[in-house]
What we know:
The protein is mostly helical. About 70% of the residues lie in helices and about 0% in strands.
Amino acid sequence: MSNIKSLQRLLVVQSIYQLSINRDAVKYTIKDIFNQIIENSEYKKSISKSNLNFAEKIFLGVKDNSDEIKRNLKDVLSNKKKIDSIDPLLLAIFLPAIYELKYGPKISKKVVISEYLIIANKFFSSKEIALLNGVLDNI
């Protein structure tokens, strides 16, 4: 994952996850959160000098459309799977992916889904990746 946009998507996922597990993180600006993650990451050299507007746009888009995005997710999930029971990291992948598919700039849906499947592959087994793929395909 070396493409700058791919790294920025990963940065957004990590930021959403960090905010979900660390309620004190809301005290910081998104740029501060981005910088903290970048400083402690393996991709520091790849992304540190890049413009983070793409990541910021996705993050703010998720924040501004959170209720609608979660409603889209609930509509696609089976009755057995409740949004509250989804792993916080998997949810942090779902949210920006759904934002990009439904509300973001017009990028090929195949590209968006592929990007988030690559991110999920870093953290999850095939079961979660299959769930992500199925949900994103249905959205």
